[in-house]
Amino acid sequence: MKTINVSFEDKEFEELTNKRGGLTWHDFIIKLAEKTEGFALTVEEKTGAKK
C-alpha cells in the first residue's frame, strides 16, 4: 500500500472537497485518474517532480 501526501491551499482544498461529494478520498482520486487518462506529461516529465 502506498500513501500520497499532497499540500493544498485552503481554497483549493475546499473546492476539491465540494467536487468530491459523498465519495471517499480514495474513490475520488481513482475516479479523477480514470477521467484524466492520457495525461500530456507523466510525473517523471514534470519539472521538479519527485519520484
What does this 3D model show about the protein?
- 43% of the residues lie in helices and 0% in strands.
- It has 51 residues and is mostly helical.
- The chain has a domain at 23-51.
- 0% of the residues are buried.
What's a quick, concise take on this entry?
Helices cover 43% and strands 0% of the residues. With 51 residues, the protein is mostly helical. The longest helix has 11 residues, at 10-20.
Write the layout of secondary structure elements.
Blueprint: H1 10-20, H2 25-35
Number of E strands: 0
Major sheet:
none
Structural class: mainly alpha
Structural shape: globular
What's the rounded overall pLDDT mean? 81
Give the SSE order as H and E letters: HH
Strand content: under 5%
Low-pLDDT stretches: none
Distance between the termini: 16 Å
Percentage of helical residues? Answer: 40-55%
Primary descriptors:
51 residues; globular; mainly alpha
